[in-house]
Amino acid sequence: MEPDSPESFDDPALKAAVRRVWRAEQTPLALRQRIAAADQPRRSAFSATTPRVRFRGVPFRLAVAAVLIVGSGLIAFHFIAPRPGQTLPNSLPVSLASDLVFRHDSCSQAPDHHMPGLPRQDFARIASDLKWRVGITVLSGPLKGNNLVFEGASLCPVGKVNSAHLLYKGANQEAVSLFSLPASVVPAGANDASYETVAAGHPISGFVHDGGFYCMVGSGASPLVSLDQIRGLLGQLKPQFVAPRATVALAAP
Length: 253
Known about the structure:
alpha+beta, Protein Transport Mog1p, Chain A
């Protein structure tokens, strides 16, 4: 073996002895303390001048919530915003919607909803006779392409205002009311503006035209009285006053 050659260090026993010595060797305590003391000012300066970003706690959760709310609002606006040539229905006043539902439910349970002296099948006469009682043109007519049967017409209060009220019923306890009211029930309602909502499970669709507010209210479990169907039924009679205008339905409050 040549002692001056690094490649000649092949004694296993000597290698094991060197490993044991080096494994046990440690930096002296005094030197380790001096190194730690010298490093401390650097750590302190870094901590004092470097901002920390916290990803937990209430502030972070509020920030995330704000981002989600703004994002949701932008998404909702994207889907609700009208397309060219379409208009969004307005929100019906809550008190008016409640009064319409109350009158609809009360009259649909009456054994006979027809004013004495009014013809039962002459819708032109019904509209003419009720017009002078409510002071506006009355919307009146049969509803085609469905199982709704005309039950009668009468002068009925909606809140504190009189209405011309036509009632239709179906074979499965469906009920649909057609109301003609003064436009004052929807303050600042623009001419031909549309209104839609669902109140207490009752779909309501209506529009303003020449001083009158005309709307339908539905009840029952049948698809016949969904908001889409009520809007379609009202659309059958709307051409008596104004050409139909496309609308985008709002979600229920």
